[in-house]
């Protein structure tokens, strides 16, 4: 009888330890989202600012303010637009990071590579985020322009791939 109790306890402990710890998963997602949020801004600084000259470097943090609330609100906020835009950017970067971290175990169990999942995730993110922007604001680039679409997908790849690789690595470490 006692041995069945011990075996049952070991089996229960094994089942419990094989379940992902939600708190740890959320923490991994938050840090992965932060990493992706920083990397996408580095990409935008190099490509959008340095190569394509689409905006000044200072325009990156306030860009989200204009996309969400419109250019007029962005201009009225002045310097506060930098903080609002940074907040918007990182709230979404962190939220999508947690979303990816929570979804990753499903893909990992089926043998998908993190980079492949990240590339699909990046496309979905760009579409979802920009449909939302179209719904809340009339201040956005032409999202039907192939250059805008390709540029948007590229920047979101630079968010999602570091996020996915970080989540994969940290999730595997237990």
Please tell me about this protein's structure.
The protein is mostly helical and about 170 residues long. The chain has one domain (about 20-174). It contains seven helices and no strands. The protein has helices at about 1-20, 20-50, 60-70, 70-75, 80-110, 115-135, 145-174. α2 crosses α5, α3 crosses α5 and α6 crosses α7. The protein starts with a helix and ends with a helix. Residues about 15-20 have low confidence and may be disordered.
Which features characterize this protein?
174 residues, mainly alpha, globular
Mean pLDDT equals: 88
Radius of gyration, taken over Cα atoms and rounded to an integer in Å: 20 Å
Give, in order, the helices and strands: HHHHHHH
Number of helices: 7
Beta-strand percentage?
under 5%
Q: Helix content range of the residues, please?
A: over 70%
Shape label: globular
Let me know the number of strands: 0
In the predicted model, the low-confidence regions spanning at least 5 consecutive residues are 13-18
Could you give the distance between the termini? Answer: 33 Å
Structural classification: mainly alpha
Largest sheet: none
Tally of individual domains:
1
